[in-house]
Write a structure and sequence with these properties.
Its main location: nucleus. This protein is of the alpha/beta class. It has helices at residues 66-78, 95-98, 106-118, 180-187, 197-208, 225-231, 289-292; strands spanning 5-6, 13-19, 22-29, 48-54, 82-86, 127-131, 157-160, 164-168, 171-175, 189-190, 240-242, 250-254, 257-261, 266-267, 270-271, 273-279, 293-299. The chain is 20% helix and 27% strand.
């Protein structure tokens, strides 16, 4: 085989022949891409603007959440229609949390952080969606992860599970908070001479029709098998696939899907990055992910 990319749990079809009790592989079939959604997105009043940021949202030497404050300031100025806040919001790995010196409960800190997002957006048309993460101190430490709980109510705030497949006026978005790209990168066995490693890792999700195709999972992840079967499958190839990762940020068109790794809003003691999307409506019944979706990685 000249080219291959394999990992544990991957579903493949091997074509070859048995010779002296050994199977010699001539060809591997690993791609089973589902079609894109059949319906075209429809946006009343023009284009759709989306901002997506992934946690951690504060530097690892403090809990001031300054990168998040800066992001909220950006949102209040630019007024996107939709903002995705991808957990963890209160990361279990933060040094000030693991040290046990936090002067409040995880839930109190979570409530305070969410309020710092929503209060400046009161009365605005911007809707906020918070995506759960199993690495959040207030979440159930299981994947798929149910939506986070929050005691206050805002009309423009919603909570969704990790992973989630969402339809926004016909625009299908798939989003996860789990770093599947890093997990796959640890164990993938690929032939040399393949340049686009990040694109190849991301393509496994679309080709395997699963948010988390790796099995057994990475040691940091606890999978609920029953929930996985019902909540971690891709029923279509999404128009947009969001896969935040520690790996370098990217925007790629893979099998017709715009796949984005925005990285994290905070990286160590430094501020990180987020992504801004602009989706144009169909014109005369014509719409394509390659021509009607523009995306930009921005530094905070």
């Amino acid at each position: 085989l000249k080219h291959f990319a394999l990992f544990p749990g991957q579903v493949v079809v091997a074509i070859g022949k048995n010779t002296n009790s050994r199977f010699i592989v001539d060809k591997l079939c690993t791609t089973a891409v589902l079609p894109l959604p059949p319906c075209l997105p429809e946006f009343k009043g023009g284009h759709l603007q989306i901002v997506i940021a992934s946690g951690p949202f504060t530097q690892n030497d403090n809990l001031a959440y300054q990168p998040l404050i800066d992001l909220v300031s950006y949102i209040t100025i630019h007024k996107p229609h939709l903002v995705f806040v991808v957990g963890p919001v209160v990361p279990t790995s933060h040094p000030l949390i693991t040290s046990g010196t936090l002067a409040e409960t995880y839930e109190e800190l979570f409530d305070k952080v969410v309020s710092s997002i929503m209060e400046p957006l009161k009365g605005s048309w911007t809707k906020v969606v918070i995506v759960a993460s199993s690495q959040d101190a207030t979440a159930l430490p299981v994947y798929p992860t149910p939506p986070l709980l929050y005691k206050h109510k805002y009309s423009n705030l919603n909570f969704v599970a990790d992973p989630s497949l969402l339809s926004i006026n016909g625009l299908v978005m798939a989003i996860t908070a789990t770093d599947i790209l890093k997990h796959l990168g640890k164990v993938e066995l690929a032939s040399s001479g393949q340049d686009d490693r990040l694109g190849r890792l991301a393509s496994h999700l679309v080709e395997q029709q699963r948010f988390y195709p790796l099995s057994p999972p990475d040691k940091e992840l606890c999978i609920d098998s029953e929930l996985y079967d019902s909540h971690a499958m891709l029923s279509v190839t999404p128009h947009i696939l969001i896969v935040p990762s520690d790996l370098h940020y990217f925007i790629k068109l893979i099998h017709g899907s715009v796949v984005i790794n925005p990285e994290h809003l905070s990286k160590g003691t430094d501020a990180g990055s987020f992504v801004r999307l602009r989706i144009q409506p169909p014109v005369d019944g014509i719409w394509s992910t390659s021509t009607h979706i523009s995306a930009q990685i921005l530094k905070i």
